[in-house]
Amino acid sequence: MTENKKTKKSLITKSKLLNAVETVLIDKGFTELKVNTICEASKVDKKLVYFHFGDLKGLQNEYLRKYDFWESKREIPEEVNKEKVKEILTDQLASIHEKDILKRLLVWELSEGDEALKKVAYDRQKNMCKMIDKFVNQHNFKMDVPPLLALMIGGLHYLSIYPTEKENKFYGIDMNRKTDRKRMVSTIKRLIKQIE
User: Fold this and answer.
1) Is residue 170 assigned to a domain?
2) How far is residue 138's CA from residue 136's CA, in Å, rounded to a whole number?
3) What gap in Å lies between CA 110 and CA 106, rounded to an integer?
4) What is the separation, in whole angstroms, between the first and last Cα of the chain?
């Protein structure tokens, strides 16, 4: 077999394994991210996990590095006004709702002390903090804005994953229902409008 064919086959195998991590994560949750489960989903021999990634952690870390799920490199606009903050928060709510993988990553991130997961969370928060700092610095607010936005973002994350894990409402709010998501967006807009 020529070198190019070997390289191509190697890339295909790695891709199958990385895709299987996502499949297992979405279908079964992070507790089932095991070599045998991933290999079963990818139909790849488990020896190849060790050959290509060193071990299970190596495979998981490569998966987390490969995709920028949270747009942690999202460019921060020159002007960060209330409308831009509303847009970013409502976009984040919509993204988490639409992408099961984001819900699963949040649960995994909250449940494990994994260094790669910490890095993903750190990058996401670092970018959001830059946006919040710019927002606060560009305006002369009387109130302490960062804690309000932290509560809103934390609440959005929690409300988004709660129905996934508990299949239940949280204080009467079911984020799987379009009407309840609209209520949340309306509340976000109202709270941001009241920042002074």
Assistant:
1) yes
2) 6
3) 6
4) 68
* Domains held by the chain: number: 2
Bridge partners of 170?
173
**Same domain? 86 vs 52:** no
Same domain, 57 and 90: no
Residue (of 40, 139, 21) closest to 85 by Cα position: 139
Query: Of 66, 91, 117, which one is at a domain's C-terminal end?
Result: 66
Number of alpha helices (DSSP H) and beta strands (DSSP E) in the chain? 9, 0
The answer to whether 55 touches 116, Cβ cutoff 8 Å, is no
Q: What is the pLDDT along the chain (196 residues), one digit of tens a residue?
A: 566 777 888 899 999 999 999 999 999 988 899 999 999 999 999 999 999 999 999 998 888 877 666 666 667 888 889 998 998 889 888 888 888 888 888 888 888 777 888 888 888 888 888 889 999 999 888 889 999 999 999 998 888 888 766 667 888 888 888 999 999 999 999 999 999 8
Q: Quick one: 55 and 99 in the same domain?
A: no
Instruction: Please give the Cα distance from 141 to 134 (Å, whole number).
Output: 12
- A 10 A CB-CB count for 14 gives 20
Full domain range(s) for residue 92? 82-193
- CB of 11 closer than 8 Å to CB of 20: no
Q: Are 162 and 173 in contact (CB under 8 A)?
A: no
Phi, psi of 170 (to 5 degrees): -115, 110
